[in-house]
Design a protein that fits this description.
This protein has 226 residues and is mostly helical. It contains five helices and two strands, in the order H-H-H-H-H-E-E.
Length: 226
């Protein structure tokens, strides 16, 4: 009987090993064998930067809680204002708001070859604490006016409370859900497919995109967004 149990244990990988297999080699792999210049000196487990086994709490998080005062996304066209970052979004921001070093965890400080500090300002991975220029998170969307909850089976998902979080559109364990863009998107975003999981073009309401007076640049030529 013991031999049978041992054989099953060897054939069935643990959840940690499965997660490591997806994270390993991605931009979220901060282990000593990770692909980036910012990686651990000797730690070879990519899971421990975000997770710790046998601990209760959101996603078995090993990330310190963000203490920063975040300024939420603002838009005059939103029927439900974005709230203070909560849930999974706080875990993401514990690296990506630039206030906590990725090598600093709840259980210990991991020595990093690329520097011991937080992600520096100006880096694409540093969103800062002013979130007005990001997609809104930590709010329950109000259906109607061109907004709907993702359909059953869609890779875009709300959290258990029905709120939009960073993880609604990003899977931190899988970098290439969009095989062209990467960026840990949960699915391909061509033709706005990812956005259309919740946003329903042409079905009423006035979006901030339609009313924006900002300009974008194509081949050196500036054009209005509308």
């Amino acid at each position: 009987m013991k031999t049978l149990l041992l054989a099953i244990a060897l054939l069935v990988p643990s959840a940690a090993a499965a997660g490591a297999g997806r994270v390993a080699g991605s931009k979220h792999d901060l282990s000593s064998t990770g692909p980036g210049a910012y990686r651990a000196v000797s730690e070879d487990n990519p899971c421990v930067f975000c997770h710790v086994s046998h601990r209760s709490g959101a996603a078995l998080s090993n990330r310190p809680d963000v203490g920063a005062n975040h300024r939420a996304y603002e838009s005059s066209t939103m029927s439900t204002p974005a709230g203070t970052p909560s849930g999974a979004s706080r875990i993401c921001l514990s690296c990506h708001d630039g206030t906590i070093a990725p090598g600093r965890t709840r259980t210990r400080k991991i020595q990093m070859a690329g520097g011991e500090g937080a992600i520096p300002p100006g880096h694409r991975s540093n969103l800062g604490t002013d979130l007005r220029g990001t997609h809104p998170v930590s709010f329950r969307p109000t259906p109607g006016r061109g907004i709907a909850a993702p359909r059953d089976g869609d890779r875009v998902k709300l959290d258990r409370s029905g709120s939009v979080q960073c993880t609604s559109c990003h899977d931190p364990h899988a970098e290439w859900g969009d095989p062209d863009l990467g960026k840990f998107l949960v699915k391909p975003s061509g033709s706005s497919a990812l956005c259309a999981s919740c946003h329903l073009p042409g079905r009423g309401g006035t979006s901030s995109h339609a009313t924006s007076q900002a300009a974008f640049t194509i081949a050196g030529e500036q054009r209005p967004t509308t």
